[in-house]
Each structure stands twice: as C-alpha cells, then as structure tokens.
Amino acid sequence: QFPLGRRLPCDIYWHGVSFHDNDIFSGQVNKFPGMTEMVRKITLSRAVRTMQDLFPLEYNFYPRSWILPEEFPLFVDEVRMLRDSDPSWKPTFIVKPDGGCQGDGIYLVKDPSDIRLTGSVPSRPAVVQEYICKPLLVDKLKFDIRLYVLLKSLEPLEIYIAKDGLSRFCTEPYQEPTLKNLHQVFMHLTNYSLNIHSGNFIHSDDANTGSKRTFSSILCRLSSRGADVKKLWSDIISLVIKTIIALTPELKVYYQSDIPAGKPGPTCFQILGFDILLMKNLKPMLLEVNANPSMRIEHEQELSPGVFGNVPSPVDEEVKVAVIRDTLRLVDPQKKKRKDVHSERQDVDSRRSKANIGCNCFWCCRCQAPEQGPEEPLPAGPAALPSLCLKQVFPKYAKQFNYLRLVDRVAALFIRFLGVKGTTKLGPTGFRTFIRNCKLSNSNFSMASVDILYIDITRRWNSMGIDHKESGMCLQAFVEAFFCLAQKKYKSLPLHEQVASLIDFCEYHLAALDEKRLVCGRG
Ligand code: ADP
C-alpha cells in the first residue's frame, strides 16, 4: 500500500480500479487514462463499429450491435429489413445495460418490441446485440473464455497475450433460445458471478473439470477431437490485436490530455480481460473487454452449514499468478540494467520461435506438442522463474495489421490541432486551422461550409450526452467529419481507400508546412 504522505516516488504504481494520477511524475502506472470509459459497452461498440465501417470483413468477430436509446428506430428498421429479405432468419437479441457487469440487467428478446420501454424508447442506455445462438458446447454446456492481455505500451504499441486463460461454464445444459427458455440465465449467461448461485455449480479442484477450467484444458480436448487449435489461437490473436487497434485512437486522446507530451509523468501499462465466445464452427467472437479483471485466486465456499470462508481456487491461481508475475517481469524497471536469466530465456525463446516459422508458439508450448526448434538447455540460476506465459503479439505481427491503423492516423491529426494541452475536444478554430493547413477547402468547399460541417456533427455527438464536461468536437465526431470529407474528395473508392487517401493528402501538406516552418526558423 502507498502510505499517505510518502515522499519517495515508486517504480511501479498498482491501482485497484482506474487511473487517477495527476500528482505522479515518474514510474509506471498499471492503468491507462480513459481505459475504463473506452471499454464500456457503448463506447466499445462505437469504436468497433467505426472499424467495421472501414473493414467489415476484418471486424466480423463482433456481433451486430445497436446503441439504445438513440438507435432504437434504426434497430427496428434494420431487423424488419433483414427479416423481409430472409424470412428464415429467426434472430434472438441480447440487451446489455451500458456500464453493467456480471450479467447485471441483461436479458434476451426475440423481437425489438419486447425491449423494456418507458414511453416509446428504452430508458437506460444499453447495447442490443445479435445473440450468438450456436455456441461451441463442452459437456452440453455453454462456456466463454477469459483471456488476459497486457497492453504494455500505447506508443509504440506493444501487446502481450497470456498463453492460458479461464473457461467459465453455464450450469444448465444449453438449448437454442426459445420463448420458453429465454429467461434461464444459467443456460444462456456464462458469468461466474451468476452461475455460482446455481445448485449445479461445481468448484474445480483441477484444471479439467468443474464450472471454471483452464482454457488449455479445453484446447487439449478440442485437439484430441481433431480440431485445428493452432488456427483457433491465430484467430484469437487477430481478434485481440484488432480490438486494441480499435481502442487506441481514443486512448491516445485521453493519454495526451492526462499526461501531456514533454511534461514529466508516468508511463502506463494495463492488464485487460478479454471475454470471448467460441461459435460451434470454432470462430471466436468478442463479447467484451474488462479494464479491471478480477485477480482473485480464492473463492467463497460454505465450509460448514451457514459458515462461509475463502478457500484457494487452484484454477484461478494457475492462470492469474502467472499473468501478474510476467507483467511485473516485463515492466520491471531494473530489467534493462541486468542481463539476467529472464532476458537469456527470452533469447532462447526468440531463437526457438524463429526456428519455428509459421507457428505462433502458443499451443506448442502449452500442450508439449513437439516444437521444431532446437532444444537448448535453459540457463539455471537463483532467479530461475518459469518461462514467460505472456507472449508478445504486437509488434511481432505488426506487418499483418498495420494497414488497419487508419483511425490512429486520423487521431494523430486531431491531437495535433487540439491546441491547448489537456483538452480532449477540438474547438471551431482548431477545426478551421486543420482544414486550412491541410489545404482541404476550395471553391466547392468554402470555409462557411466547413463551419456548418463542424456545427452539425459536433451538435449531434454532444446531444448523445457522452461527455458534457468540455464543449467542442470529440474524436468520434472528428472521425465522422473526416470520413465525410474523404467521401467528398475521392468519390468512387471504397471507404477505407478514401480515408487512407485523405490521410496521405493531409500528412503530405502538414509535412510540407513543418518543413517550411523549419526553414523559416533557421533563416
Ligand atoms: P457483463 O459485463 O454483464 O458480464 P457480457 O457482455 O460479458 O456482460 O455478457 C454477459 C454474458 O452474456 C456473457 O458472458 C455471455 O455468456 C452472454 N453473452 C453476451 N453477449 C452475447 C452474445 N452476443 N451472444 C451470446 N451470448 C452472449
């Protein structure tokens, strides 16, 4: 614990909940500013949807979602249209209150008219999502996966994924949703916090049985049935990287606001909990991201009638201790100063994975399937810790994913024109300067039209009641305006090419401007 009044700074600050460190000027903090806001159901859905607009195929791992109440009419219309075009489509929808957790307030409906309404629209902000009706079952039960992901750095982007996670099971055999079973939470919702109250919940004594198991035990079972587990891992890695790519633009806006560049401040890292559902065909689907995943390694149990106590949970311990241990090893400030067993091991690891081309090493390491690399003895020593469970996936696979980082580049333009450090919204003057410096106005697009575009889009985003603390244009509104400009300028291309072309155009003019200023400065 950080005692009140302590003067000496720490190397690492480990917060329980969220980033709140305006008075820390060095070291590393285990939370990013804005992460809690970014992974709320509505914000995450919006961020993923922006990416789905640009890259629909790459982002088809997130169920079709609508934001309530504002998109309720759109939801009703789209469902009607989809039903008209395919009468055999018999969807189920899941309604999830924004900011809810542990299954709180979640319910299933068969028809938009079943959404709980006050007046003519749903009252509480929520996300309504297409329900995945055909999940993969094990022992006839639905389950989801909790995977731990370390976001070690935002700039440059560094992502690690834990080789093992948890599988959390429902406690009633699964049936596809019908009007009769829609309300059976123990059949449809995999939340541990709900299922623990079912009489069927089984506390797991080992990794392979019970209502909470290791993910690797599920993989072993799938592998023994002939499933392509390497492909599954590679799909999960893609899902994680793409989701983080969707979150980074706004995270960067929060970051520069709380920790302005050029001023002393801490750096950040964060362990995230990814909740993933496997479909029957083994396709992983993202359910949600948790900014503050539980790191408990014990659970409550009735020790004798009416007497409850905490007992160790071996499955949680196996997975979570490794995640915390490796996170500390990776962010260890002394790491660079010592050439210790850890780095030697990493050398060995990297030599092995280089010899193991085409294999992401997740599965081989875990199940002891033969690796193709040479077996080198690991160096022994006083600090001979188990090998890393957190595996780097970015920048390792950056080449495959960098083309998706368009909104990141739009965010860089936005941040450049924010002007006053510490803000997260762009004023009308900043927007005009952006248009002028990037040479985007012309006889067809006057500065008066620029002002109208700014006012229209900003007003709409601000009326959604996202953040009333500051006035001005938020990043999402800027992204919308940018897409509009791109569509206007490069008419017949697909959206992602229009946006990429406009980014190139803006970056070119800004680089020329910087060069000119540099020359003038020297002069
Ligand atoms: P919470 O934060 O309240 O846990 P989640 O989004 O994780 O909310 O949803 C709770 C549970 O509902 C999930 O663990 C999963 O079992 C189920 N679920 C959520 N979304 C879907 C979906 N689109 N399709 C099928 N099941 C879902």
From TrEMBL:
The keyword Plastid does not apply. PANTHER family: TUBULIN POLYGLUTAMYLASE, TUBULIN POLYGLUTAMYLASE TTLL11. This is TTL11 polyglutamylase. Keywords: ATP-binding, Ligase, Nucleotide-binding. It holds the Pfam family TTL. The keyword Lipoprotein does not apply. GO terms for molecular function: ATP binding; tubulin binding; tubulin-glutamic acid ligase activity. GO terms for biological process: microtubule cytoskeleton organization. One of its GO terms (cellular component) is ciliary basal body.
